[in-house]
From TrEMBL:
Localization: Nucleus; Mitochondrion
Protein name: Endonuclease III homolog
Reactions catalysed: 2'-deoxyribonucleotide-(2'-deoxyribose 5'-phosphate)-2'-deoxyribonucleotide-DNA = a 3'-end 2'-deoxyribonucleotide-(2,3-dehydro-2,3-deoxyribose 5'-phosphate)-DNA + a 5'-end 5'-phospho-2'-deoxyribonucleoside-DNA + H(+)
UniProt gene name: NTG1
Assigned protein family: Belongs to the Nth/MutY family.
Entry's Gene Ontology cellular component terms: mitochondrion; nucleus
GO BP annotations, alphabetical order: base-excision repair, AP site formation; nucleotide-excision repair
Length: 369
C-alpha cells in the first residue's frame, strides 16, 4: 500500500477561493451572464385635482411600488419600463338609454300645447303683468325672486293672481309706478302685505320673508339680486331650486338644475334617478351627474308644463301622450286608454276641458309618433 498521501500538498482555503465539498458546490456565473438589476427609484405620491362645477374634488394617489426585489433575471435585452400614468379622469354616470327619446317626444308635445307655466310661471309673471309698462332688468330680477318665493306649495295660477294684486296695489294705491320693487316692499306694512298674498300657501310666513329679504338686498347687495348661489341661499325662504332658477333667468348663469315636484316625480318615473329618492335636492344632484349642461335650463319648464297638463300625479292623460303608444313609458294607464276608446267626440271634448292649458293643437297623437 502506497503512502503517497503524506506527500500530498494540502492547500488551505483563502478568502478569495471558495470551499469545495460534496455537499456544497456553488455555481459561479460568468460576469457577462449576470444582468445588472436596475435601481428602482421610489415613486412619489402624485395627486391631481379636477373640479367640474358642483362635482366634488377627486383625488387619485399612485402608491409606492412594493416588493422591489422580486424582479426576474432575464437575458440582457433592453426592457422598456412603462411610466406610471398620472392622468385622472372623472367617470360621469352614463346617460340613460331612454333619455333622448323621451326628451324629444316631450319637447314635441310641449310645442303643441300652452300650459300654465308658459304664461304664469315664475319667470314669465313679471313679463306678463308688466306688458303695458315695461320694467328694467333690475326690477325684473326682483319680481322674479318674489314670484319664486311665493310659488312654494302654490299653483302658478294662484301665484299669478297674488303678484297681479300686489302690483295693482303698489301702482294704483301706493303710487309706486314700477309696482313691485325693493322700495315698495320696504314701504308696505307686513300685515297689509300678508293680506295681498293671502291666497298663496304659507302666506304669513312668506310675507315676513319678503320684508326681511328687501332689507337684506338694500343693505348688503346694493338693492339688487345676488348673482351667486351663496348670496341667494342666504336670503330667508330661498332654497337651491329658487336660487338656480333666479340665476338662470335673472343673470343668465346656468349653474344647476331647478328641480320642482314635477321634475322630481317624472325623473323617477322614467328611471332617470332611483325610484327610492325622496328629496328633490338629491334628484338634482343625480341628474347633474349625467345630464348634458345644455339641458339644465330648459328641462324645468319643459317637464313642469308636461306634468301640469298631460302627465299629472293623478288623472294622467296617457291617451294624449306619445310615450304610451311608443312604449317608452312603463307607467301607462291601460284602463284610461280603453275608456277613452269608447267615448264619443262630445264626451271626449268635455273631458279635455278639465286640462290645465290649451291642447287644441294636440289633435292627433299618431302624428307625433
Amino acid at each position: 500500500m502506497s503512502l503517497r498521501r503524506s506527500n500530498r500538498i494540502v492547500r488551505l482555503p483563502t478568502s478569495s477561493s471558495p470551499i469545495r465539498s460534496k455537499y456544497f458546490t456553488p455555481k459561479i456565473k460568468k460576469e457577462q451572464d449576470i444582468e445588472e438589476i436596475p435601481e428602482i427609484k421610489e415613486i412619489p405620491e402624485i395627486k391631481e385635482e379636477i373640479i367640474d362645477n358642483n362635482i366634488q374634488i377627486v383625488e387619485t394617489v399612485i402608491k409606492k411600488k412594493e416588493e422591489q426585489d422580486v424582479l426576474p433575471i432575464r437575458s440582457p435585452k433592453r426592457r422598456k419600463t412603462p411610466k406610471p400614468s398620472v392622468k385622472v379622469e372623472i367617470e360621469s354616470n352614463p346617460i340613460p338609454k331612454n333619455f333622448h327619446d323621451i326628451y324629444n317626444h316631450v319637447k314635441t308635445m310641449r310645442s303643441k300645447i300652452i300650459t300654465p307655466v308658459d304664461t304664469m310661471g315664475c319667470a314669465n309673471i313679471p313679463k306678463t303683468i308688466n306688458q303695458e309698462s315695461p320694467i328694467t332688468q333690475k326690477i325684473y330680477r326682483f319680481q322674479l325672486l318674489v314670484s319664486l318665493m311665493l310659488s312654494s306649495q302654490t299653483k302658478d295660477e294662484v301665484n299669478y293672481q297674488a303678484m297681479t294684486k300686489m302690483r295693482n296695489y303698489f301702482i294704483n294705491e301706493a303710487g309706486f309706478k314700477d309696482g313691485i320693487t325693493i322700495e315698495s316692499m320696504l314701504w308696505i306694512d307686513e300685515i297689509k302685505l300678508d293680506e295681498l298674498i293671502y291666497s298663496v300657501g304659507f302666506h304669513k310666513r312668506k310675507s315676513g320673508y319678503l320684508k326681511k329679504t328687501a332689507e337684506i338686498l338694500q343693505n348688503q347687495f346694493q338693492s339688487d339680486i345676488p348673482n351667486t348661489l351663496e348670496g341667494l341661499i342666504s336670503l330667508p325662504g330661498v332654497g337651491p331650486k329658487m336660487a338656480f332658477l333666479t340665476l338662470q333667468e335673472g343673470w343668465n348663469l346656468n349653474l344647476g338644475i331647478g328641480v320642482d315636484t314635477h321634475v322630481h316625480r317624472l325623473s323617477k318615473q322614467w328611471g332617470w334617478v332611483p325610484k327610492t329618492v325622496k328629496d328633490p335636492e338629491i334628484t338634482r344632484k343625480e341628474l347633474e351627474k349625467w345630464m348634458p349642461k345644455e339641458y339644465w335650463k330648459e328641462i324645468n319648464p319643459l317637464l313642469v308644463g308636461f306634468g301640469q297638463s298631460i302627465c299629472l300625479p293623478r288623472g294622467r292623460r296617457c291617451d294624449l301622450c306619445s310615450l304610451s303608444s311608443t312604449k317608452l313609458c312603463s307607467n301607462v294607464d291601460r284602463g284610461l286608454l280603453r275608456k277613452v276608446g269608447k267615448l264619443t267626440p262630445e264626451e271626449l271634448e268635455i273631458m279635455n276641458k278639465s286640462i290645465r292649458g290649451d291642447i287644441s293643437n294636440l289633435k292627433d297623437i299618431e302624428d307625433l309618433v
